[in-house]
Fold each of these.
Amino acid sequence: MASPPGPAVWLHGILFHLRAVIAARQPSAGAAAPVLGLLWSRLHRLSRRFAAAVARVEAGKLPRKRPARARAEVAEPRPAYPRLPQGFAWLHRAIPGAGSAGSQMQHFLAQPETVALLTAAPHLGRHLRPLCRMLGVPPPPLLRPAEPPARAKPAAPARRVARPPVPPVTSPPRRPGLAPPAPRAAAKSG
């Protein structure tokens, strides 16, 4: 008896089915054709990357923890290109036959092999979270990203003691009828 397929093969089958649904819809897509083409390539890339990451995990090559890097500011704006929609379950609204892939994804995430894999290598969740979002599958706790470590709160600034206000410096009041003092003449030496 053959052993059941591993998680990478199972996900590849789900994505293959989803790409077949997209291919059937593409001729009648009209204005949505660029988005469907982008989705097709994104799903293909996702399948390859997940399979490669699973192979690395199975070979015992887990990624090292890297220190967080500060984000570099982008000097130039990125060129405009077609982007995939970002809402939850947007694929159900865009492609009517995508609902079956969502239920297959839920079943895939509930499999003991998948749970064991995601427990051993939680970094694989970054491959599956976008797929869950587009298919409308609530991510299980294993797929939720780890909370970033709490930052130390900066020390509260020392309270300033209220000082009495300093009166402004003013000249003495002039008496009415007095002429202003004449400027002093410089002594001539001669």
Amino acid sequence: MANDPHLFLTLPGTFYEAHMVSDELKVYGYTIPGIPLILSGHNYKVTWGITNGEWDLTDRYKLKVKDDLYFYDGQWIPFKKKEYEINVRGFGKKKITQQSTVHGKVFTDIGGDYYAQKWYAADKSYSVKSLYLLMKTHNWKSFKKALSDYDYPPQNFVYSDIDNNIGVVCAGKLPNRVLNFKGGILDGTKELNHVKANNTSRSTYNPENLFLFSANQQPIQNEEYFGAHWHKNDYRINRIHSLLKNNNDWDINKIGEMQLDKVDLSFFEFEKLLNKYDLPIQFKDIFVQLDDWDGNMISQSNSALVYEVIRKSMKIESIKFARTYLKVNKAPSFKYFLKYLNQREFNIPNSISKQRLFENILRNTDSILKYDFGKDWMNCRYAMNTNFSIPDISFLPEFKTKVEGLGGNKNTINMNTNFHPAFRLILEIKENSINGYSIMAGGQSGKLNSPNYKNQLELWRLGKYNRI
């Protein structure tokens, strides 16, 4: 069982490692400050890991308003009001009045229209109780029962036990939306959406293919609305699935290698374009760098640098294409823009030719490479594009910690964007024993002057693990 949740990193980190022992509990894993719960880890029989479900938990309602009243369910109702006083330096106390409706807090847009926003996770939650019971579970039945009261934030919980069983539960409460709901502004004069009862049938246990994983993808394929997941690129998900599907011989080292994998599958879709379009001779240096490349976004690769600039160029061109020819502000995802370019027989009426579109992408790429890395860009490495800094939780610039040479991008298992694995955990489950290996992006201490403030960071950067 492996877990590596991706978050915005700070020092000290969101998680820290803990071993909790009491008369009723013996658990080990990762928790967050102030919460006496293991969120990812194991007891003596069961292991579990988490990743965010990315469900849509916000509804926005347009209101019909007159004076201090809003129209709802056939009648005019006064806004609820709550006053706050905020001390503002140089101005004294400033009073703020927050209005709310049955649909949530009220705000207005530039045009003066009134809206209310409902965030379901603001409702009363039983998640702490549920996670406490989760730590005491000893089999799949008790695991599912513990999560039956879990509501927010929605998480996909992966399960395994010492009896060789595996499962996943997609736990959380969904708003009771209509079938085929697609989002958008709702009518605030009509009855409020209520929350569905928890549905622990959103689970899988001992599947025929002998593996399970979650990378935030939609938990089940049906008409139930979880969120706009169809807008996402799924290269990372498909990479995980292909590795698991094509290998039946896993051990600790191979799982660790998979957590560090940096192959971007989107390259192989882009590579098809090179055989479909005329390749202008002035961009031959770009083609040379991509010839026979394996899509591996390692830090020392020039090909990886070139391809990341191509992805950037495609994003620029897709935004222009969406605004000019589709007449929308939202650009298509990288996946669907690539799909459009790969279908030579189909063209948006009255739009730019696909050959021109392809050439514009190459022209953008050539310009960015020369502007950012100079005429000698063919000797530059992807590391120049992937270095980043982890801020101290105070966000004072003097306390940033630089991290170099990671590689990877948003499509790779070892993701490198604004989000990175807060920790990596591997649990080896055998009959009557569970062995653990982990590393965190930082250290166990929150004190800036402690030797343990960031003592695990270099091991994390190198992809190494501690025995736990």
